[in-house]
Design goal:
The chain is built from 13 helices and eleven strands. With 332 residues, it is an alpha/beta fold. A seven-stranded mixed sheet has the order 2-3-7-8-9-10-11. Strands 1-6 form a two-stranded parallel ribbon. α5 (166-178) packs parallel to α8, α6 runs antiparallel to α7 (213-221) and α9 crosses α13 (316-327). The relative contact order is 0.11.
């Protein structure tokens, strides 16, 4: 990396999914475009992205208030901040974006934080996620988070022809558990030509002795992608459970979000992830979680008054699950 120049806060507004959890925005402090590894796994886009080692990266401001003002325009919900860069300026921008999101009252996911930044991070309302294979930096970050009492885990890429074998999946869960992770979540790569092409490039660069280029190309491009991905996701969830790990990250609740609401929305998201094959039910559960996020008021008193089902626009199982989560919430 030859240098960095400051730019205004870059925040992508709008709902997206992070390992089965709803996020309302992404804050991108910068520094991810340059330096470090040649490839990076993005768990929201569900793609392997390339990096340029010689690019001049643009980095966001190191003033939390600038980030707070940008993030407050996002819909209700958690914010994903990161990844963190490797230079001092990138790290300062990352720290400022995290603090700005917290001042905006949001729960925060820290994407690939620098291990040096974790010790000073607040424990409440933040969850650290490390996306990709479990390398030295991820292990250091998981260990730092465990020591600091911060919930952290791995978002593991499910890449047919590379990471879907049982030995790979078991190794990922074992390494995550050994480093103090609380969860390991499978993230299937997008199934299109560009994703397959980049996967071949990545494997050849990172594991050149594994197979010849011809063998790898055939395995990736002619695999039963969807079936292999679904099997590997189910298998990793099973392995995680056997090791005492969750297969979804926890849902961070910000200061502006009623904790009972967060718990109810999390319950609905977890139900959706148990059976993603039922697309209609999956969509209803995700829509119900969004409604709770955007309700703008603490729903527990409404449950206590017996009026929740009068305002909740979803009936049956969804209403029962949401109401039960709100009623049993430990948060006062």
């Amino acid at each position: 990396m030859t240098g960095a120049e400051e730019r205004p806060p870059r925040v992508r507004l709008g709902e997206a999914e992070l390992a089965g959890r709803r996020i309302a925005a992404r804050a991108l402090p910068g520094g991810d475009e340059a330096g470090g590894a040649l490839f990076r796994f993005d768990p929201v886009e569900r793609r392997i992205l390339g990096r340029s080692t010689g690019a001049r990266a643009s980095v966001g401001p190191d003033e939390p208030e600038a980030w707070r003002l940008a993030i407050r325009r996002a819909p209700a919900g958690s914010v994903l901040v990161g990844p963190s860069g490797e230079t001092e300026r990138s790290r300062l921008a990352f720290q400022a974006a995290v603090e700005g999101a917290r001042r905006a009252g949001r729960g925060v996911y820290l994407l690939d934080p620098d291990p040096r930044d974790i010790t000073g991070s607040p424990r409440d309302g933040v969850v650290a996620v490390f996306a990709g294979l479990i390398d030295g930096r991820a292990r250091s970050g998981l260990e730092a988070a465990s020591a600091a009492g911060i919930a952290a885990g791995v978002l593991f890429p499910i890449a047919p022809g590379w990471t879907t074998g049982d030995s790979r999946l078991d190794g990922a869960a074992r390494a995550a558990a050994d480093a103090g992770a609380r969860f390991v979540a499978p993230i299937p790569l997008v199934n299109d030509g560009e994703s397959r092409r980049r996967l071949v490039e990545t494997v050849l660069a990172l594991d050149p002795g594994a197979d010849s280029a011809e063998e790898l190309f055939h395995r990736v491009h002619h695999s039963a992608w969807e079936e292999e991905s679904a099997r590997a996701c189910a298998r990793l969830r099973e392995i995680a459970r056997d090791r005492g790990l969750a297969s979804l990250p926890p849902r961070p609740a910000g200061a502006a979000e009623p904790r009972g609401n967060s718990q109810a929305a999390a319950r609905l998201e977890e139900l959706a992830e148990r059976d993603p094959g039922d697309e209609h039910r999956f969509s209803l559960l995700r829509a119900a979680a969004r409604w709770i996020d955007e309700s703008g008021r603490d729903l527990r008193p409404i449950v206590a008054e017996g009026n929740f089902r009068k305002i909740f626009p979803f009936g049956g199982e969804l209403a029962r699950e949401a109401e039960d989560a709100l009623r049993t919430s430990p948060w006062s």
